Amino acid sequence: MRSRLLLSVAHLPTIRETTEEMLLGGPGQEPPPSPSLDDYVRSISRLAQPTSVLNKATAQGQPRPP
After folding, report:
1. pLDDT at 41
2. Which of 64, 44, 66, 47 minimizes the C-alpha distance to 56?
3. What pTM does this model have?
């Protein structure tokens, strides 16, 4: 049996291409530049580091390892 709460919730809006175009600047315009592969790998490496390593490097003023 379904919960009454589920039945009373309004539907979520959908994303349309026209909405995305408005957010990006309109049709026919170039999309914003995407980050380079090196930037991507660097950000993933930072996310993969334990927070204790990041806090220690920040406290010592050292750059984080790549």
Report:
1. 92
2. 64
3. 0.31
